């Protein structure tokens, strides 16, 4: 593993923290609400900075810039450096 990369388990834990311990969200409305907590500017895309900030607000101040970048990169299927709702939803289905 390279610097700034996270394990699959760390990524899943970060995504699950938005669901208050639920194993996976099967309900798209709940997924949208969780996604919206990350999408601070409401543009439909989550940047690494938005992810880091949201995780800190939810009580995880240990998500660093490189960790946030790795989480976004792991689910960024179109390689635009951001995570869309569709990419977020797909990540929850893994």
TrEMBL record:
InterPro entries reported for this sequence: Centrin_CML-like, EF-hand-dom_pair, EF_Hand_1_Ca_BS, EF_hand_dom
Pfam families cross-referenced by the UniProt entry: EF-hand_7
Residue ranges annotated for the EF-hand domain, each copy included: 26-61
Keywords, in A-Z order: Calcium, Repeat
PANTHER family listed in its UniProt record: CALCIUM BINDING PROTEIN (PTHR23050)
Name this protein carries in UniProt: EF-hand domain-containing protein
Organism for this UniProt entry: Streptomyces decoyicus
């Amino acid at each position: 593993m390279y610097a700034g990369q996270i394990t699959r388990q760390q990524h899943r834990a970060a995504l699950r923290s938005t669901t208050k311990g639920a194993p996976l969200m099967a309900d798209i409305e709940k997924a949208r609400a969780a996604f919206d907590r990350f999408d601070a500017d409401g543009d439909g895309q989550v940047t690494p900075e938005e992810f880091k900030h949201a995780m800190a607000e939810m009580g995880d101040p240990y998500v660093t810039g490189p960790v946030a970048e790795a989480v976004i990169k792991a689910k960024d299927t179109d390689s635009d450096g951001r995570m869309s709702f569709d990419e977020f939803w797909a990540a929850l289905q893994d």
